[in-house]
Amino acid sequence: MKPETRLRYAQRMAPVLEWLPNSGLEPADFPMFEQYLNDPRSTPAAQLQTRICLPVK
């Protein structure tokens, strides 16, 4: 993974990783996944939307 790709990923994940410890929840034994709400091939970067899904227990 390119360094700039890692940085963008870390920036997207920061809110989730900050929220989780204080939520009273813990990650479930299931992989996290992302749902892309629009198409990056036809959507300007500033308008891209991604839903981050973290299964919890």
Automatic annotation (TrEMBL):
Species of the source: Pandoraea fibrosis
Residue ranges occupied by any GyrI-like small molecule binding domain in the UniProt entry: 17-57
Superkingdom, natural source: Bacteria
Protein known as: AraC family transcriptional regulator
